[in-house]
Amino acid sequence: MNQTYEECIKACLECMEACNNCYDACLKEDHIDMMRECIRMDRECADICAFAAKAMQSNSPFAKEICQLCADVCQACGDECAKHEHDHCKRCAEACHKCAEVCREMAA
Amino acid sequence: MNQTYEECIKACLECMEACNNCYDACLKEDHIDMMRECIRMDRECADICAFAAKAMQSNSPFAKEICQLCADVCQACGDECAKHEHDHCKRCAEACHKCAEVCREMAA
Amino acid sequence: MNQTYEECIKACLECMEACNNCYDACLKEDHIDMMRECIRMDRECADICAFAAKAMQSNSPFAKEICQLCADVCQACGDECAKHEHDHCKRCAEACHKCAEVCREMAA
Amino acid sequence: MNQTYEECIKACLECMEACNNCYDACLKEDHIDMMRECIRMDRECADICAFAAKAMQSNSPFAKEICQLCADVCQACGDECAKHEHDHCKRCAEACHKCAEVCREMAA
């Protein structure tokens, strides 16, 4: 694998996992009414993170452009998750903001 | 469904199909040595087209940004396919260039 | 494209669209508390339908096995959607049950 | 995250990476004519591994059935990769056979 991509792939896969966990947990929350945007962003973010990881792993000629998109989605998802007090949201916000940062560097 | 998206979703799904068909046919060509880039771009383009269709169908807040990426990949895949004489490549080039145009309008 | 697959690909893509539409609409419903399972199944079903369409379009050696899985998910998603009175749920239930039937035939 | 799934998610993500790496490397091999099936299986396997990881991470009610499908694809991809002498194929065969085993246990 391209060593350049190693850190970014790791951040994407960790963010994918945090988002899918948060998605499942949000769907079970008592006050799901508050979690609408979080559920929506979690799905979106998990899916683009998986897409970005695949692009880097397979040396896509569009890896940088995909990482730029991934950074934008991760930033938005992390900002949404950071509004909530649930542990799964806090963990997800942290993984998203980390991934946004690493993807931005990759895309630069 | 959002009516605005209807034409673009259709173009993405038709491009996805043309790319997946071309991918399969390229893998069976006698002179596969010539088809390396076509195989690679077909997979990439089919996958981003599916991703863009999903984004529009589910009213993603990132639909426009995803369509911009999709337009870039479709343009590159169409340009690659247009270099080859196989019917599947010609059909794919046409679907890719059409989708690139519609996605660019959507992203504008 | 393989003519055998044509009807099944069409059913999968229509089901994907109905599920993604229903997912978006469920996330906006007043009584989202009632829609938890519908949201979850819509995502799952949309994603496996896209996966099955790709498999058939690219002549995957696993197309039949993937269609069997798709049939099971479509059946469960259609059964869940059929419990609700919203138009988007009724349309989704219909698309899911249709797709389940066509996928079962494909897998047989 | 569900602790039960931890090992299986890890195996799927490692297999996804090995398959995407092998796919890219096969597309660059001098004797690409020999690598047709390997390219095809690598894409298929990488994609189902990503799908299975997502299913487990989000507590899908179909996680077991998806892992059974994943096990079958991993076994076939590993068997194909094991026919080739390239380092990327050997590494991929190992990751695939490991993932097939863990997925089979999960599905049981």
UniProtKB/TrEMBL annotation, chains A, B, C, D:
It comes from the Bacteria. InterPro entries: Csp_YhjQ (IPR005560), YHJQ-like (IPR044543). It holds the Pfam family Csp. CDD domains: DUF326. PANTHER family: CYTOPLASMIC PROTEIN, CYTOPLASMIC PROTEIN-RELATED. This is Four-helix bundle copper-binding protein. It comes from Chungangia koreensis. The lineage of its organism: Bacteria, Bacillati, Bacillota, Bacilli, Lactobacillales.
